[in-house]
């Protein structure tokens, strides 16, 4: 035990030395650099190094004190075996820090007064690990201070305390050198946190010696260099713990130090948003593995045991047929859930094998399912029971982190600036690569795109609307008109065909389709009420548009465009030069079967995906014209077993002409 | 069809003369436009350059005046009766097209195929 302690001592000492070197380097850089940005960065590193040194030193101090205490207790009582169970450690990650600011409106909107800029960064401390975020320059044009970094602490116990400190420094000061030590001490004491700073201040004062005793003889304080340059001050801090861990963003309160008079002041709103996630090791690592024999569920025969290699990890006991399967990532033979509601007990000795069985009971639905498991020997059984108890203890200590594995995204070391599309919409997927390909017109590209889609759908991920064209029993509910027209074309399910792709039918090129076209001819559009929707019982979207997706694999956020309000304007038919024609009359719901994509159904109604109804409703207004898009090359005839690529391409095109995204006017 | 600020824009254009059709008390042309300097150019499915804020034809009513005159979907309108359309807001463009006192609009439109056609005609003469 002494050896490990010594090992830790020397580890910490090495870390301290390293940090001291870093700090010296930062000081030199600070003294040497001329540009403000460099100076701010160097000052930040200086601050971080100093804090780390303080932390390591206090850790050393604690260890020495613990050593001393242990000697004391050992003398006084017989040290029994330590049978306190220690919970497993875990990873804690904090990301997407955002601190809102609260500028006065005179400052923010009218830009009055001189622009007061501050450089800010956050120091995050958990136990011994201290990390800093990148530095952000803040002035009154920003509404929030955002830190994009994800900080991961790797060895945290469930009772962790994550201290978040926000430092800021006015970025216009003349960095005057030669502050008196007292001033420096007071500044540092506010920067380093109260208790550490008080120690520091006390140590720097030549007066009575500091209350912190030098138990081990190591110097508690190294002389803090007074370097000219920007100095950071603590603006706000807060402490997060296990109760704040959640798999989503939460808001926490900040404790603000400083007031308006300070140069480093920023008007903070008083709270901080972040995502604090934790991955205890019991969820990510194999806590226990070995050979088990599981009694067959169905057999009454007590001899039918299945030999498996079991792995206890997370909320399950995975049972593989062979040990090699674990590495091979083969699916386990079966999985027994081990969670907070599981009950495990050892049953009486099995008369045949003289070994206790372990019974694992779970509630699945309303039933109680019990698996009986046995091992090779008594020691094995004991080990497994011990592992189970440890696992339960871990789960009770880590509480909500053990319900489900929280994701922690580790950013790649050199993350390029994310190229966000201006507004997420399907349009951005369509790259018109007409540079090389002379023959490419819009429709050709669309046709190619549809083929891609077709390929994808062949792999089984067909967009739901494709099913509208699948051979299926023609369900003739509704209009007899449709039925009569449909008589000749069995593969068509008239009721499910969206109305929009009517247009191509008119074109003589799409000969085969022309008769089908009559199905969804515009003359009907006004009186349609989407028999399909009633059919499938999907809820009608409240807006007049029903949405489909032509790219099922991707979800795009809804674009909010200026002309969103146009969706409420009614079209005026063919006439009406001059008004914005968005033409969404109530029956547009008829135009499309609202078929949300299975994979993303709750959102599909609201996400902007192909809106065929829109374009067709536009056309439906005008009595004579229905579609408008000519797509001259879009004729790819073919038997009507699936909608032709041309048709689909038209639909695609029409989808992109959603007036909610891009204003269009009829003239 | 993108532009370099400071440089004149050049394009191969076609003249399209559309006779407005009277429908009741409205004069209609039979097409729809999209785009404008106040609109998001990224949403334009027809433009080659996604920063092109010009006015594009997004829909043609079949057998309407524009269709008969030869306007095609995806055309970019450069001029309307002499008024420039490359640097206008959406509403300004609409207004220039729908003047009640004008019976006819003469457009200058451009499209990719025009460029291609000119290129090919200037190209080699030796192709069989």
TrEMBL record, chain A:
Which Gene3D superfamilies does the entry link to? Pleckstrin-homology domain (PH domain)/Phosphotyrosine-binding domain (PTB) (2.30.29.30)
Q: What domain of life does the native source organism fall in?
A: Eukaryota
Q: Where is this region: Disordered?
A: 487-509, 530-559, 595-667
Q: Where is the REM-1 domain?
A: 1-69
- Give the GO terms filed under biological process for this record: actomyosin contractile ring assembly; mitotic cytokinesis; septin ring organization; signal transduction
Quick check: keyword Coiled coil in the entry?
A: yes
Which InterPro entries does UniProt cross-reference here?
A: AHD, Cytokinesis/Rho-signaling, HR1_rho-bd, PH-like_dom_sf, PH_domain
Q: Which PANTHER family match?
A: ANILLIN/RHOTEKIN RTKN, RHOTEKIN
Q: What is this protein identified as?
A: REM-1 domain-containing protein
This protein's species is Oreochromis aureus
TrEMBL record, chain B:
Coiled-coil parts of chain: none
Indicate where this protein resides in the cell.
Cell membrane; Cytoplasm; Nucleus
Q: Does the keyword Acetylation apply?
A: yes
Q: Cite the GO molecular-function annotations of the record.
A: protein kinase binding
A cellular component term (GO) from this record?
basolateral plasma membrane
Q: Set out the biological process GO terms recorded for this chain's protein.
A: cell-cell adhesion; establishment or maintenance of epithelial cell apical/basal polarity; neurotransmitter receptor transport postsynaptic membrane to endosome; neurotransmitter receptor transport, endosome to postsynaptic membrane; receptor clustering; regulation of signal transduction; Wnt signaling pathway
The record's keywords, sorted A to Z, are: Acetylation, Cell membrane, Cytoplasm, Membrane, Nucleus, Phosphoprotein, Wnt signaling pathway
Q: Which Pfam families match?
A: PDZ
The organism sits in which domain of life?
Answer: Eukaryota
User: Which part of the chain is the PDZ domain?
Assistant: 15-112
Query: What protein name applies here?
Result: Tax1-binding protein 3
Q: What is the lineage of its organism?
A: Eukaryota, Metazoa, Chordata, Craniata, Vertebrata
């Amino acid at each position: 035990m002494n050896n490990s302690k010594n090992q830790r001592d020397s580890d910490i000492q090495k870390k301290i030395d390293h940090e001291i070197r870093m700090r010296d380097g930062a000081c030199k850089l600070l003294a040497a650099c001329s540009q403000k940005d460099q100076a701010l960065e160097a000052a930040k590193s200086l601050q971080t190094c100093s804090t780390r040194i303080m932390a390591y030193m206090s850790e050393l101090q604690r260890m020495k004190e613990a050593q001393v205490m242990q000697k004391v207790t050992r003398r006084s009582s017989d040290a029994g075996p330590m049978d306190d169970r220690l919970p497993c450690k875990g990873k804690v990650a904090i990301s997407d820090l955002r601190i809102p600011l609260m500028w006065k409106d005179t400052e923010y909107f009218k830009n009055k007064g001189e622009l007061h800029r501050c450089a800010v960064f956050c120091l995050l401390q958990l136990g011994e690990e201290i990390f800093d975020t990148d530095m952000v320059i803040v002035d009154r044009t920003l509404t929030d201070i955002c830190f994009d970094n994800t900080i991961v602490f790797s060895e945290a116990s469930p009772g962790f305390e994550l201290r978040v400190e926000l430092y800021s420094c006015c970025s216009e000061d003349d960095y005057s050198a030669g502050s008196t030590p007292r001033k420096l001490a007071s500044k540092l004491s506010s920067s380093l946190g109260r208790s550490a700073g008080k120690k520091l201040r006390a140590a720097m004062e030549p007066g009575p010696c500091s209350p912190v005793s030098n138990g081990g003889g190591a110097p508690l304080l190294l002389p803090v260099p007074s370097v000219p340059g920007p100095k950071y001050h603590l603006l706000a801090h807060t402490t997060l713990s296990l109760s704040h861990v959640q798999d989503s963003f939460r808001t926490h309160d900040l404790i603000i130090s400083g007031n308006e008079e300070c140069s480093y002041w920023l008007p903070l709103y008083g709270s901080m948003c972040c995502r604090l996630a934790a991955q205890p090791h019991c969820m990510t690592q194999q806590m226990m593995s070995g050979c088990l024999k599981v009694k067959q569920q169905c057999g009454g025969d007590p001899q039918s045991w299945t030999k498996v290699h079991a792995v206890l990890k997370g909320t399950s006991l995975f049972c593989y047929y062979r040990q090699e399967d674990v590495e091979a990532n083969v699916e386990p033979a079966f999985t027994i859930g081990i969670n907070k509601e599981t009950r495990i007990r050892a049953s009486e000795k099995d008369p045949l094998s003289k070994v206790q069985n372990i019974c694992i009971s779970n509630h699945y639905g309303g039933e109680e399912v019990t698996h009986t498991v046995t091992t090779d020997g008594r020691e094995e059984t004991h080990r497994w029971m011990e592992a189970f108890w440890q696992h339960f203890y871990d789960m009770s200590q880590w509480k909500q982190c053990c319900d489900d594995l929280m994701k922690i995204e580790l950013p790649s070391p050199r993350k390029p600036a994310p190229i966000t599309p201006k507004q997420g919409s399907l349009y951005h997927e369509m790259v018109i690569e007409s540079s090389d390909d002379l023959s490419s017109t819009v429709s050709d590209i669309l046709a190619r795109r549809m083929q891609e889609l077709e390929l994808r759908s062949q792999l089984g991920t067909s967009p739901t609307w494709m099913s509208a064209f699948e051979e299926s029993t023609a369900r003739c509910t509704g209009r007899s008109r449709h039925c009569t027209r449909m008589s000749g074309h069995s593969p068509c399910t008239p009721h499910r065909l969206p109305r929009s792709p009517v247009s191509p039918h008119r074109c003589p090129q799409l000969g085969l389709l022309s008769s089908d076209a009559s199905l969804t001819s515009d003359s009907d559009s006004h009186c349609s009420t989407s028999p399909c929707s009633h059919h499938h019982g999907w809820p009608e979207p409240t807006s007049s548009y029903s949405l489909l997706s032509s790219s099922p694999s991707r979800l795009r956020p809804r674009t909010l465009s200026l002309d969103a309000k146009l969706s409420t304007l009614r079209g005026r038919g063919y006439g009406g030069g001059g008004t914005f024609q968005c033409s969404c009359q109530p029956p547009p719901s008829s135009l499309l079967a609202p078929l949300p994509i299975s994979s993303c159904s709750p959102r599909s109604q609201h996400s902007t995906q192909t809106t065929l109804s829109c374009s067709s409703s536009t056309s439906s207004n005008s009595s004579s014209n229905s579609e408008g898009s000519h797509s001259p090359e879009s004729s790819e005839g073919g038997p009507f077993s699936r909608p032709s690529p041309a048709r689909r391409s038209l639909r695609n095109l029409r989808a992109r002409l959603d007036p909610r995204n891009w204003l269009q006017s009829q003239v | 069809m993108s532009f370099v600020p400071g440089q004149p824009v050049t394009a191969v254009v076609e003249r399209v003369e559309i006779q407005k059709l009277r429908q009741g008390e409205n004069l209609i042309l039979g097409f729809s436009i999209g785009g404008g300097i106040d609109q998001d150019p990224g949403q334009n499915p027809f433009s080659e350059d996604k920063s092109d804020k010009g006015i594009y034809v997004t829909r043609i009513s079949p057998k309407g005046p524009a269709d008969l005159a030869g306007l095609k979907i995806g055309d970019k309108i450069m001029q309307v009766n002499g008024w420039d359309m490359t640097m206008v807001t959406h509403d300004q463009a609409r207004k220039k097209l729908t003047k009640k006192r004008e019976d006819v609009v003469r457009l200058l439109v451009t499209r990719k195929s025009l460029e291609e056609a000119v290129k090919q005609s200037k190209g080699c003469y030796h192709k069989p």
